């Protein structure tokens, strides 16, 4: 676990962001800071690791150094204000008693981590992400969930166990037989069309 | 009675008696009982094959959330669909019959996926629906209003830890799927699909037209070869979690000319794909060994006998792992890797 300076005010903001407690303006400021400060990235990761341990959701498999380097190289990826307005309100049943803002900030934060870590499945290009080994899922005993665990808008944290680049062929071939394809037609393919980076890949 | 009245009463009897005679038959033909949860599920599956519609939906999977517009037309020419993502770059998914294309403008790529030419997207067979009841508890839920439609909720609770739970909301009038949730082993929603606006019925064909016409030479089209029939099947599924059985199998060629054997197994609702290929080094980024997860999808890979087995599906990690463990090389036929 990296050293965490718990008393620094910017760390508190990162922690607050991780817990979905910042306003949209504050969130975008923190995102901007994370984009350029590798130290902030490390602290961000550590807060999530702390959160994961509390919630018992297991360890991360993201290559932190590559992640930080990628963020530093491509600040344009941080479209935090738009992500913060993601229409999570359309799904109130995901978590009861949650304010839309905390849910949106959670989505924004998680999308930042998830978007960069998950490859663009259908570009066929080799990204600059370091190859990661997925951590095997250990049997999860539901930890005592306190009311304050509001960080994740969606209950599961798949960004913690990213799928490596070589899997896209399998996912694409499987979609046709995916469980609700019979009812939903092409809708499940939406899963595979993750957001692309702004610059075209070679 | 006076004569006119008798005539009238006879006339009335002549008119009314047949009606009364028919009435008991009508009453018995109309079942007073409400459709069961299973009836709702059947109707849900059947409606999709027939309905044309257009609308906007939100699809949440893992930590991704996208709004999209969908147009779907079913007519004598078959089924055509167009999905246009409304957030971020204007990606499109176009489905014409058996072929699905993804148009990705930011990377100027079109990815094409075809099924076997004789097989449409997997329809749910009635016999599979019956199998569902052996591994899921099917119950009716509440009625709710979704996108302006009255919807009936249907809950499918898994009977063991080898599958996810599902909740579907069907339009009361047409049976169409309006909303769907997938629950993992912790009873948490890992995937949700929901219409926010919807029109069922006659849809103009012009709505199917992609915004990407006349793609220039800068664009790249990636296409895997269409799957072929499986001749020699070098592997068998010796054991599988309850309710799962093999639906189909085929040979596929993935990027880099990798020949892969693809087997699909299902418990009637959840489907799992098994991919078996020689364990070579021709893939530049082979998937990691063990378990990976994205939203509702779990992937498990293992090496057996100089082969790489990859199991993919919307089921808990324990299930894909059990299926991977249940595969063994066929001992009789000798297949060259």
Describe the structure concisely for a colleague:
By secondary structure, chain A is an all-alpha fold.
Give a description of the structure.
The complex is a heterodimer of chains A (202) and B (337). Chain A has 202 residues and is mainly α. Chain A is 43% helix and 0% strand. Chain A has eight helices and no strands. Chain A has helices at 9-18, 24-36, 38-55, 64-73, 80-84, 100-117, 168-175, 181-184. Chain A starts with 8 loop residues before the first helix and ends in an 18-residue tail after the last helix. Helix content of chain B is 18%, strand content 46%. Chain B contains four helices and 21 strands. Chain B has helices at residues 3-29, 37-50, 126-135, 317-325; strands at 53-61, 64-75, 78-85, 92-96, 99-104, 109-114, 136-146, 149-158, 165-171, 177-183, 189-200, 220-223, 225-229, 235-237, 245-254, 258-266, 271-278, 290-294, 297-304, 307-313, 327-329. In chain B, the strands form three sheets. A twelve-stranded mixed sheet of chain B has the order 7-8-9-10-11-1-2-3-4-5-6-12. In chain B, strands 13-15-16-17-20-19-18 form a seven-stranded antiparallel sheet, covered by helices on one side. In chain B, strands 14-21 form a two-stranded antiparallel sheet. In chain B, a hairpin with a 4-residue loop joins strand 5 and strand 6. The termini of chain B are far apart. The model of chain B is unreliable at 117-122 (pLDDT under 50). Classes of the chains: A mainly alpha (202), B alpha+beta (337). At the A-B interface, helix 6, helix 7 and helix 8 of A face helix 2, strand 1, strand 2, strand 3 and strand 4 of B.
């Amino acid at each position: 676990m990296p050293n965490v300076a718990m008393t620094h005010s910017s760390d508190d903001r990162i922690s607050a962001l991780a817990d979905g407690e910042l306003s949209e303006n504050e969130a975008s400021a923190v995102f901007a800071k994370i984009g350029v400060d590798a130290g902030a990235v490390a602290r961000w990761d550590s807060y999530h690791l702390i959160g994961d341990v509390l919630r018992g959701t297991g360890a991360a498999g993201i290559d932190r150094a590559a992640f930080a380097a990628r963020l530093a190289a491509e600040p344009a990826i941080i479209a935090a204000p738009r992500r913060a307005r993601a229409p999570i309100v359309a799904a109130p049943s995901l978590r009861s008693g949650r304010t839309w803002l905390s849910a949106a900030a959670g989505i924004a934060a998680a999308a930042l981590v998830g978007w960069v870590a998950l490859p663009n499945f259908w570009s066929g290009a080799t990204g600059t992400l370091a190859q990661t080994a997925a951590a095997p899922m250990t049997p999860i005993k539901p930890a005592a969930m306190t009311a304050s665990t509001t960080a994740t808008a969606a209950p599961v944290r798949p960004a913690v166990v990213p799928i490596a680049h070589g899997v896209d062929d399998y996912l694409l071939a499987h979609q046709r037989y995916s469980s609700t394809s019979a009812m939903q037609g092409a809708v499940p393919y939406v899963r595979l069309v993750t957001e692309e980076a702004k610059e075209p890949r070679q | 009675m006076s004569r006119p009245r008798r005539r009238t009463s006879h006339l009335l009897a002549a008119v009314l008696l047949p009606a009364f005679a028919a009435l008991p038959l009508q009453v018995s033909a109309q079942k007073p009982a409400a459709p069961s949860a299973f009836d709702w599920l059947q109707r849900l599956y059947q409606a999709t094959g027939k309905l044309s519609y257009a609308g906007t939906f939100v699809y949440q999977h893992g930590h991704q959330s996208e709004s999209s517009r969908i147009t779907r037309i079913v007519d004598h020419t078959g089924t055509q669909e167009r999905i246009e993502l409304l957030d971020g770059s204007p990606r499109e998914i176009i489905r014409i019959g058996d072929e699905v294309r993804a148009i990705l403008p930011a990377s100027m790529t079109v990815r094409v996926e075809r099924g076997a030419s004789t097989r449409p997207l997997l329809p749910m067979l009635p016999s599979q629906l019956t199998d569902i009841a052996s591994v899921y508890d099917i119950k009716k839920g509440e009625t709710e209003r979704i996108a302006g439609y009255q919807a009936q909720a249907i809950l499918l609770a898994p009977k063991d830890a080898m599958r996810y739970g599902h909740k579907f909301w069907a339009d009361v009038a047409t049976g169409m799927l309006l909303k769907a949730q997938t629950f993992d082993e912790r009873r948490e929603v890992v995937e949700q699909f929901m219409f926010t606006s919807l029109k069922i019925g006659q849809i103009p064909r012009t709505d199917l037209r992609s915004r990407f016409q006349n793609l220039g030479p800068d664009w790249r089209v990636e296409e895997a070869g269409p799957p072929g029939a499986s001749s020699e099947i070098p592997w068998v599924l010796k054991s599988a979690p309850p309710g799962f059985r093999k639906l189909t199998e085929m040979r596929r060629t993935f990027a880099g000319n990798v020949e892969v054997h693809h087997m699909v197994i299902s418990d009637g609702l959840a489907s799992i794909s098994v991919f078996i290929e020689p364990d070579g080094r021709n893939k530049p980024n082979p998937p990691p060994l063990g378990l990976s997860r994205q939203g509702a999808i779990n992937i498990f890979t293992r090496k057996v006998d100089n082969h790489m087995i990859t199991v993919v599906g919307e089921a808990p990690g324990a299930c894909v792992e059990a299926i991977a463990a249940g595969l063994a090389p066929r001992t009789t036929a000798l297949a060259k890797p």
